[in-house]
Design a protein that fits this description.
200 residues, 8-stranded antiparallel barrel, alpha+beta, Porin, globular, single chain
């Protein structure tokens, strides 16, 4: 007999999203093309032409990716798709990332794996904001080297022949001016939710 889960992952993420949107209600990003728009309007006025109106598309393009920022994340909740008594849902992750101006990111994560072993993940990745109408939404994909699955658990991840294994980690989340949250997929094994903060 399985014990009921006190709160679903979906409800948890919904609450996180509402909190994040509330915290980021102030202007989100400085538009890199604001100066160009002002110059174009001034030139147009000088020529006696009507000032160009900013369309929804130009406004969305003004919400540029936040450049040159550090990001810190930790886990909130983990759920395994096929839970076992050996699994732990407390990953205690400390994840440090740098988001560069060209939408690349680099980072290192220190955590407890599903079998409570100290684990490290060093990676680089890419971030996208697919919807202009929802600029806080982002997609991330990171790839790197995972270390920490040892002993009887060495074969729990593929290609872990020498204690180091390649890893590819996709995620979807919300990120505003100072706060973020992510839903991270760990292959076919588990999914976890994280929360983070930015600093310049």
């Amino acid at each position: 007999m399985t014990s009921p889960v006190p709160i679903s992952l979906g409800k948890c993420l919904a609450r996180l999203g509402v909190m994040l949107l509330a915290l980021t209600a102030s202007p989100l990003y400085a538009g890199d093309d604001e100066a160009a728009i002002v110059v174009a309007q001034a030139a147009s006025s000088a020529d006696g032409a009507a000032e160009p109106k900013r369309s929804a598309e130009s406004r969305a393009s003004g919400l540029k990716y936040p450049a040159g920022r550090w990001h810190f994340q930790t886990t909130i909740v983990t759920r395994h798709f096929n839970p076992s008594p050996e699994h732990t849902n407390t990953q205690r992750m400390l994840n440090f990332q740098y988001w560069d101006p060209n939408r690349w990111l680099w980072g290192a994560a220190f955590l407890r794996n599903s079998f409570n072993q100290p684990t490290q993940y060093v990676y680089m990745g890419r971030i996208w904001r697919p919807l202009d109408s929802v600029p806080v939404l982002h997609l991330k994909l990171t790839g790197g080297v995972l270390h920490g699955y040892k002993g009887e658990y060495r074969d729990k991840i593929p290609f872990n022949h020498y204690g180091y294994a390649p890893a590819l980690v996709p995620s979807i989340g919300l990120s505003g001016k100072r706060f973020s949250t992510d839903l991270v997929l760990l292959g076919s094994a588990a999914v976890f939710a994280s929360a983070g903060i930015f600093w310049d």
